[in-house]
Amino acid sequence: MATTRTAAHRGHTPATLSSVRDAHDLFVTGRVDGSYLASIPLPRLVTDSWQRSLATGVDPDRGPGEAAAATRLTELRKSHPLARALPVIRRLLVDHATDSGALVGVTAADGALLWVEGDSGAGRKAAAMNFVPGADWSERAVGTNAPGTALALDREVQIRGSEHFCRLVRPWSCTAVPIHDPLTGTPLGSLDLTGGVDVASAQTLALVRATAVAVEHFIALEYPDAGRAGAGRGPRLTMLGADRAVLRAVDGREYRLSGRHAEILALLLRHPEGVSADHLAMLLDENDLDVVTVRAEMSRLRRIVGGELIGSRPYRMLNTVESDLEDVFSALRAGDIATAMDHYSGELLPRSAAPAIARLRLELSTSLRGAVLACGDLRLLRRWLDLPEARDDRAGWQGLHDHPEVSAVMRSEARGHLVALDSDLM
């Protein structure tokens, strides 16, 4: 498997319940900063997650938003590769949870809860914090929590009571382990056990970890194509938001691309008719790039990914290549803004200074922003404003402030952001 698991946080002197709550209250109200958190006996994993949660605008007094509609949830479950592994999860983990007053949660890779099973009494109590199928338990939506933070870090995580970012979740403890496609290493989701204080134990971690491994083996042996459900069978290029673009080949191998090679592939995707070496040089650098350099880069790129993928005279893609870039554009063309946001993990090749990439980056970001602001969906607007590129989006923050469904805490945050933006212009 491509990702190496690391142990959940260990080796720290546990802080008392009251000291954790005090530190959290001081931090979320702005009376202390990250340097203070580093001085108290809390795991770095937790304090880092608190800082991410606060930075992305998670409300510590609210849980996740409304669960997905029944039809949408049915579609998510039906198409998800972990659906076929439910008998394994039930046999190894749910039966244990039912006997111990705990719940088993299975999430998709974006943090959406797909299944919640286990003790019925615990289930009724957990529903009060919206720990139900269809709810978004990603870290960006709920803050520090085991399934969401395990996905954010791609590692196993245990969160104890008051270590949660949202106060509503404090009565619970949880242990979560990410599950990966056994061929590509791509995260498929997470497996979580939620319950009382004993759930955050070394024994529980070993049990959840063993179940996750069994699920991955089941997918690899019984359903070799299941891990790639929904992702297509052809090559796929990922280049939004990440420091390095990744090309996944048909055989499952992944190539971490240099900045220049990522730029070339992005431009070839947007020019299916093909481009000459001269044209490509101009797209990559209007002044200083010569044709000889372009040809040398193309030669290196074709050696890496194979000549059967990229043709020459003109340079063009010989096979269909899926990409997160095209996923966003396709969803926008279909008017499906929620799906567009799901695929948009950040700006296109954010480190690229190539003029054509900069124009394409602006086109994508502007198109998505306009669609989000026009649709009036509070959840999508909040997700847009959580992106680094939206920090100075005054119209977006004003829209959040004026939205009829916004909470008092979120409106106050928007008001403060607007004041800060206006002060920068004075």
UniProtKB/TrEMBL annotation:
**InterPro entries this protein is in?**
GAF-like_dom_sf, OmpR/PhoB-type_DNA-bd
One function term, GO molecular function aspect:
DNA binding
Q: Which UniProt keywords apply?
A: DNA-binding
Reading the lineage from the top rank, the first entry is Bacteria
An example GO BP is: phosphorelay signal transduction system
Q: Where is the signal peptide?
A: none
Q: Is Protein biosynthesis there in the keyword field?
A: no
Q: Which Gene3D superfamilies match?
A: 3.30.450.40
**Residue stretches making up the OmpR/PhoB-type domain:** 252-317
Look up keyword Aminoacyl-tRNA synthetase and say if it applies: no
Q: What is this protein called in UniProt?
A: Transcriptional regulator
